[in-house]
């Protein structure tokens, strides 16, 4: 069950409650052409599809996946993702 949270602003407590976002972005960094990447990619895509197809999970909020191939470099993959 979703419960509104109190919003804190620069000047202190804001009146009212926060609203539910229409989209929540999540990201993944993998070497997609690897054993782990070839296994993780379809699993992550299936999980996102499951969440988005069940309105009781995020109730009106879409889960959006941003997937990036690190090409075997954690450093370069992270920099490229930003």
UniProtKB/TrEMBL annotation:
Entry keywords, A to Z: Membrane, Transmembrane, Transmembrane helix
Record domain Receptor ligand binding region: where: 40-78
Lineage of the species this protein comes from: Eukaryota, Viridiplantae, Streptophyta, Embryophyta, Tracheophyta
Main localisation: membrane
Organism encoding this protein: Nyssa sinensis
A GO CC annotation given for this chain: membrane
UniProt biased composition (Polar residues): 12-21
Span list, region Disordered: 1-21
Protein name as it appears in the record: Receptor ligand binding region domain-containing protein
Compartments reported by the entry: Membrane
Gene3D superfamilies xref list: 3.40.50.2300
């Amino acid at each position: 069950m979703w419960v509104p949270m109190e919003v804190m602003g620069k000047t202190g407590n804001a009146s009212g409650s926060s609203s539910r976002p229409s989209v929540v972005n999540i990201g993944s960094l993998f070497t997609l052409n690897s054993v782990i990447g070839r296994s993780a990619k379809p699993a992550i895509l299936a999980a996102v599809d499951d969440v988005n197809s069940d309105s009781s999970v995020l109730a009106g909020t879409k889960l959006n996946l941003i997937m990036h191939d690190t090409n075997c470099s954690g450093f370069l993959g992270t920099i490229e993702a930003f």
